[in-house]
Amino acid sequence: MDKPLTFNIESRPKNLKVMVSVIVKRNVNITKVRSKFQM
Fold first, then answer.
1. CA separation (Å) from 27 to 7, 21, 24, 33?
2. What pLDDT does residue 25 have?
3. Residue 37 burial (CB < 10 Å; 0-12/13-18/19+)?
4. N-term to C-term CA, the chain
5. pLDDT at 11
6. What is the pLDDT of residue 17?
7. How far is CA 26 from the centre of its chain?
8. SS3 sequence, 1-39?
9. How high is the pLDDT of residue 14?
């Protein structure tokens, strides 16, 4: 039981980083589209 728990704890930060990077990329794309419409 200890090994899977530690594995989950170690893998969660990686997943969070991936999610954050995906969200940041989406936000950057949205800001680019908005700037194009504003021009």
1. 30, 10, 5, 10
2. 92
3. exposed
4. 57
5. 66
6. 85
7. 9
8. CHHHHHHHHHHHHHHHHHHHHHHHHHHHHHHHHHHHHHC
9. 78
User: What are phi and psi for residue 9, nearest 5 degrees?
Assistant: -65, -35
Predicted confidence (pLDDT) per residue in 1-39, tens digit: 456 555 566 667 777 888 888 889 999 988 888 888 876
Residue type at position 3: K
Instruction: Extract the tokens encoding 39.
Output: 């021009």
Residue 10 structure tokens: 């170690």
